[in-house]
Design a protein that fits this description.
This protein has helices spanning about 15-25, 40-45, 75-80, 105-115, 130-140; strands at about 5-10, 50-55, 60-65, 90-95, 125-130, 145-150, 155-160. By secondary structure, it is of the alpha+beta class. It is globular, with a radius of gyration of 15 Å. One of its GO terms (molecular function) is acyltransferase activity, transferring groups other than amino-acyl groups.
Length: about 160
């Protein structure tokens, strides 16, 4: 296994992104709280809002980051936005790393590339309260817990990074 290369996503990456996304859905044992369509990823990629980690032709991981409006139609995002998050922050996530690439620093590398791309603007995200690994990873990336909320009976924490 090579070291994946981190860079902007292209339309050719969508199938690989969807594969990693599906493997991280709750019904597959993952902790993702939303499912994005190929069309959503195509629009996000065209807008420059997705970064991937590529290992040859395979997508090892990805991160999406958007203005609030791009995800405001999603019920859990609506709940998060009402929880008192920084109104000027862009949204970080989802961030997913394929299982066989975890523990290699890819999430941190993807987040660093995202922060660089966004010129270190303020950012908000949410994570299931019981997802200790993701919370710890985001804290190591420099985010801090800002607030929490409940959606469909599940508790989430909101993490933010300032400009």
């Amino acid at each position: 296994m090579n070291s994946p290369v981190i860079g902007p996503a292209t339309p050719e990456d969508i199938a690989g992104i969807l594969e990693v996304q599906e493997a991280n859905q709750e019904e597959s044992g993952g902790t993702l709280s939303a499912r994005f369509s190929a069309e959503w990823f195509a629009d996000a990629i065209a807008s420059g809002w997705v970064i991937v980690a590529r290992d040859d032709d395979r997508i090892a991981g990805y991160v999406a980051f958007t203005p609030r409006e791009a995800q405001a139609h999603i019920p859990i995002i609506q709940t998060m936005l009402r929880s008192g998050t920084n109104p000027g922050a862009y949204l970080h996530g989802p961030i997913c790393v394929a299982e066989d690439y975890r523990g290699r620093g890819l999430a941190s590398g993807l987040f660093a590339a995202e922060r660089e791309h966004m010129d270190h603007a303020a950012v908000s995200t949410f994570i299931r309260e019981d997802n200790r690994a993701s919370r710890a990873a985001h804290l190591r990336m420099g985010m801090t817990q800002a607030t929490s909320f409940e959606h469909d009976g599940v508790r989430y924490v909101v993490l933010e990074a300032a400009e």
